[in-house]
Amino acid sequence: MANSGITPGTKNGNGAMAIGAGSVANGDYANAVGTNAKALADNATALGANTTVMAGATNSVALGQGSVADRPNTVSVGSKGNERTITNVAPGEISATSTDAVNGSQLYSATQGTMNELASTKTRVDRVGAMSAAMASLKPYYVDGTEKGQIMAGVGVYHGEKALALGYGYAPNDRLFLNASVGIAKEEQMYGMGATWRIGAGESLVKKNNQAMDNLKAENEELQDRVAKLEALVQKLVETKA
C-alpha cells in the first residue's frame, strides 16, 4: 500500500472504508476518503481532506476540503464561515411532486413573474380606487320633482391613476329614485345600479308645492275680484258726482 501512495485509515463498522492518512470511518457502511477525513455516522460519506460527517448525521455527505455535515440526510459542500457556491446546475423540474434542485435562472424567472404580477395588481387596485372616487362624486340633484331624469359626471384620482364616471338618475314618481353609473380607468371598468325609496306618511315636497301654488292662485283671484269691485265702486261714485 505504501508504494501505491494510498494510506489506509481506521475503520470501525460493517462495510466501512477509510482511505487517507488519519482518515476514520466509524459507522456501518461509512466511507472516509482523504487526509483526516472522518465519517462518524452510519451510511456517511466524507470525501476530501479534513472533511467530517458528524456522529448522528446518518446518511449524509461532506464533499470537498474542510466540509462538515452535521445533520442527517444532508449534503454539505462547506462549513460555517467557509461556504461554497454550487455552479453549473441544470434547471430542475418544477412541479407539485418534483424533488429537483432549481438554479438561479429559474429563481430569477419566478421572482420576476411574481414582481410583474404584484405591479399589475397594484395598478388595478389604484384604478379601482380612482373609479370608486369618481363614482362617489356622482350626486343626484333633487329640485322639485318635476324633472324626471338627470345626468351626472365625476372624476377621481388615486395614487396617480385617473378615472371618469358617468351616471344617470330617474325618478318615475316622488317616492322612487333609480340610478345607474359606470366608472372607466383605461381598460378597467366598474358598474353600479341602485334604487332609493322614500318612506313615511308625510306629504311629498311636490304635493306641498302644488298646494302652495293653488293657494296663491286662489288668493290672487280673490284679490283681482276685490280690485274689480273697488274699481266699479269708484267709477259709480265718479258718475254720481258728475
Which keywords apply here?
Pantoate--beta-alanine Ligase, Chain: A,domain 2; 5-stranded parallel sheet; 242 residues; alpha/beta; single chain; 3 domains; Alkaline Protease, subunit P, domain 1
3D architecture notes:
- With 242 residues, the protein is an alpha/beta fold.
- The protein folds into three domains: 10-71, Alkaline Protease, subunit P, domain 1 (2 Solenoid); 103-199, Pantoate--beta-alanine Ligase, Chain: A,domain 2 (2-Layer Sandwich); 204-242.
- Helix content is 29%, strand content 28%.
- The protein has helices spanning 104-136, 205-241; strands at residues 10-11, 17-19, 24-25, 31-33, 38-39, 45-47, 52-53, 61-63, 68-69, 75-76, 149-158, 161-173, 176-185, 188-197.
- The strands form three sheets. A five-stranded parallel β-sheet has the order 1-3-5-7-9, with no helix packed on it. A five-stranded parallel β-sheet has the order 2-4-6-8-10, with no helix packed on it. The chain has a four-stranded antiparallel β-sheet with strand order 11-12-13-14, covered by helices on one side.
- The longest helix is centred in the last third of the chain and has 37 residues, at 205-241.
- The protein starts with 9 loop residues before the first strand and ends with a helix.
- The mean pLDDT is 90.
Short description:
With 242 residues, the protein is an alpha/beta fold.
What gross morphology would you assign? rod-shaped
Strand order of the largest sheet: 1-3-5-7-9
N to C succession of SSEs? EEEEEEEEEEHEEEEH
In total, how many beta strands?
A: 14
Largest sheet: 5 strands, parallel
CATH superfamily of the largest domain: GSPII I/J protein-like
Architecture per CATH nomenclature, i.e. the level-2 architecture of the largest domain: 2-Layer Sandwich
In CATH, the topology of the largest domain is named Pantoate--beta-alanine Ligase, Chain: A,domain 2
CATH class value of the largest domain: Alpha Beta
Strand content: 25-35%
The number of distinct structural domains comes to 3
Number of helices: 2
> What is the terminal-to-terminal distance?
167 Å
Cα-atom Rg, whole angstroms? 47 Å
Q: Unreliable stretches, pLDDT < 50, 5 or more residues?
A: none
Mean pLDDT: 90
In which range does the helix fraction lie?
25-40%
Tell me the structural class.
alpha/beta
